[in-house]
Amino acid sequence: MRATSFIHPLLALVLSPLMLGVINRTKAWFAGRCGQPVLQAYYDLSKLLRKGAVYSRTTTWVFRAGPIVGLAAVLEATALVPLGGEPAPLAFTGDLILLAYVLGLMRFFTVAAALDTGSSFEGMGASREVTFSALAEPALLLGLAAVARLTGSLSLSGMYAAMSLETWRQAGPVLALVTAALMVVLLAENARLPVDDPNTHLELTMIHEVMVLDHSGPDLAFILYGAALKLWVLAALLVGLLLPVRTGNAWLDVGAALGGMFAVAVAVGVVESSMARLRLLRVPQLLVGAGALVALALILTLR
Amino acid sequence: MTLPLHNGEQLNRAKIPQQNVAEFRQQVIARVREGARVAALFGLPGNGSVPMLAVLANGVSGKLELVGTEISGEYPALTPDVPQVHLFERELAEQCGVIPKGHPWLKPVRFVKSLRPGHDTWGRAANEQPLVGVTNFYRVEGDEVHEVAVGPVHAGVIEPGHFRFQCHGEDVLHLEISLGYQHRGVERALLGGPNKRTIHYMETLAGDTTVGHATAYCQAIEALAGCKPPARAQVLRGVALELERLANHTGDLGALAGDVGYLPTQSFCGRLRGDFLNMTALVCGSRFGRGLVRPGGVVFDVDEARIGQLRERLEQALRDVTSAVNLLWNTSSVRGRLERTGVLTTETAREIGLVGVVARACGLERDARQEFPSGIYQFVQIPVSTYHTGDAFARAYVRWLEIQRSVAFVREQLNALPAGPVRAKVGPLANNATVVTMVEGWRGEICHAALTDATGRFAHYKVVDPSFHNWFGLALALRNQQISDFPLCNKSFNLSYCGHDL
Q1: Searching chain A, which residue's CA lies closest to the CA of residue B163?
Q2: pTM, to two decimals
Q3: Cβ-Cβ contacts under 8 Å, B324 against chain A
Q4: Given 3.40.109.30, 3.40.50.2300, 3.40.50.10420, 3.30.460.80, which CATH number is that of B3-129?
Q5: Which of the following CATH numbers is that of domain B186-501: 3.40.50.1240, 3.90.1150.10, 2.30.30.140, 1.10.645.10?
Q6: Contacts of A16 (CB under 8 A, 6+ apart)
Q7: What is the 8-class DSSP label of residue A83?
Q8: With CB atoms 3.0 to 4.6 Å apart as the test, which of B152, B166, B182, B368 could cross-link to B501 if both were Cys?
């Protein structure tokens, strides 16, 4: 394990809420508004951490464990994902499976905490969340499998270290398909448009937001911070494919990847500004479409 | 036998034909079969039996008809034959303590005590204060059927109302809407009027329809007092009414865009709504038109400089609205979201007596400005904007059509404003008289019916906001839809809670 391995997790811990700020600024720019401060997510987190939490009498320890387990799980995911060609602090053969399942664990506990409240809204949100993530997960795993097959490595760090501009020249179509599918997975998993609307106040239409309605104070801060980290992790997977800059200098490579991360945030903002949300019935079609893209990519690598 | 009269025509109360209940029912059923709609149906609560009055509106002949009867205790309900009166009969039962026998859905409307002491449809004790929202809700039983209750406290800044969904998974089997949280007792407070407070009650019946309700009220007063407001005042009322329509339609289109998560139109229309409100403020100093319309005419005149400024602002606002709204129609994801969401058929719309934008979006040509014109609309006609699909898209699109036509109307009127005073003197009201006025507010047909006593005071004043007709349309539009589409459908109707609860 190299010292430079820790650059990425540290950056993620510090900068992930900034991505939300960039998305919001992009949206504000499109709408002709000034928008909230870029650092608003940090202000929100510090405010929430200083507050107390309110717990309903109908909830149990499951409700309180949800945010903590969720944050712990996504922190582990952050430690698994490499950025800019540098290996991640945690790297071993098959760690891509672990990545998918720590994200799954995070979701499981969010859903369990939502169901624990006994609210009909949260039950509906939980049902939608598991339906859609059941379709998003195969797309993520198949996409990573296609990359694994292409690079001949079964560890995320190995896979991404092997990526270069040369890989794009040799297997451009495969990578393009995987990138497109990963973008859909990123939007769906992070409750962004066109799958979910992070700004809506309408409980009946929410997916992710409605599950965390009952959390308050530090618990809500954990959830918001966890969501920012999850966005970061999935964006890092995307940027590693799209922008495999390899100069030999770790700082330069990570710097380029960092630029890519914020470019992804801008892209998310552009998508949110230029289209309406899908009808919930159509969301599975989008996710299955993403699954079909990566399945095709996998077949291409097997030629 | 019915009594024909025009919109805003004063007649002696004694002329209203009083018939027995069977004849009354027959008349109402026959007129509705001929294509009339029931604009109002109400009882006059007193100590003895209850006089009941129906206002039938035939849009084709442009005639209003009054028919009366008297009931005591029970009478065979009209609802099974004329479904559009279902809410009127529930209101009648609640206010007057009579029982419409055979009413399939006899529940309280606003959860108030009966106004006829000793008579209560549900047999509640006289000292028992009914609790709003406490009633037997319809329930669907079965595996995987679940109930979702929303409100009366909502997440957004909107009025209180309770919505009960019976769902199978994400599909809505049934929606029941229970209102009454905003009941202020306006109609009771109007009795014995008009007085200094009356106009302010009218302007706040539904805060976003200030000009509409104030105009309907003023026309009633003018008819009862035999006063003719000057032409310039009539035009200014029309301009204010259309500006109100423009502001609200623009705001609605923006809010619809917001509900489907489409940011550009949402942000632009939010601002543009303010531009139209500011034009009203330029005329009278109030963004909502408060203090503008008064019996006898209007209070504020506009000079040449103001007219020029209004014209300029109108053109600028139309340009901006056009580009913001066209974004909606040109974005396939928005179209995909609005089309086939919350569909109502023309037949359903006619049967349940929908009015206004919602009815026109189902292909019904219902517009009081065309069918029962009053004021400036007697001389200038605005084409009726309809669309045939009956879905959320149609309700949005009809709003856009009306925006264009209202702008054309305002532009034309500002160019040819008649000279003269803006207010006439209003004398005392006629004794024992009755009048019905209809105004097409931005939501739809506003119907006011006033009856005076032997001293020229209000013996009864009935207000029917378009929302009263249309709330049930929302409940039907949700059948077999996704529950996640409810906010979008609700916004596309955008009905008033306080206009319903009064």
Answers
A1: A204
A2: 0.93
A3: none
A4: 3.30.460.80
A5: 1.10.645.10
A6: A225, A228, A229, A231, A232
A7: B
A8: B182
